[in-house]
Specification:
The chain has two helices and no strands. The chain is mainly alpha-helical and about 60 residues long.
Length: about 60
Amino acid sequence: MRRVIWSVMSSLDGYSAAPGTGFETIDWFRADAEWLDYSVELLDQAETLLFGGLTFARMAQYWP
């Protein structure tokens, strides 16, 4: 049986948006070296990624 890993960026209160538009409005998130190392390690273990519709559309634009 395969493992399922749920990885979601969210603030402590569960709200993951801020006023305005674009990724820069999430000012509480910092992609530092530690986070990058964790992300690469996690993705190296993944066989399949599942995205929501909006995230998928944006990822497809970035990585056609």
